[in-house]
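Collaborator request log, item 7. Partner lab (contact: R.S.) asked for a structural prediction of RRM domain-containing protein to inform their binding assays.
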Amino acid sequence: MTGSGDAKRLVIHFQTAEARDMCVGSTHPEFPDLTFHAHDPRQLWTNEDLRAIQVTDIPFFIKKDNLLAYFKKFGNITSSRLFSRPNAKVQQARIVYDNADSIARFADQWAVYCFSTCLRVTPCSYTVDQKAARRQFVATFTQLPPNVKDINLAPLTCNLSAKAVNIPLSLNSYKPK
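Returned to partner:
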């Protein structure tokens, strides 16, 4: 048994494809309200992707509890995972909501500010090309004053119609470069 509520599923394993097809293709008077379908784990993942976002550029000082507390304001979170790649300077998160409406805003809103840090947000259902389009046009500012944070540049990014901003952090001190 997996999921809960409307997403609850009973997964039954068969020894042969013929036995599975016989179960799926026939009616079952003892279970009149149940509908049997061939199980496709990729389809279940795709359904979850329609309700999930990927959050990137998360500094290590932002902990999972803080991140989830922030993202709860967009809807009811059913699952989440915070992770980082080996030798990464930042973390990433996958957050799954119970409803696709919770992530609709992130089609146009590419980032949020959490603890004065700009976190990039991408719907997980996006194709590789859609994700690449969000990294297509980038500008670099140089000679910024010391210790400038992402939030300090928010008025400028708003005036420039920028979608997100990122100030790299020093690996040694974890202060803005």
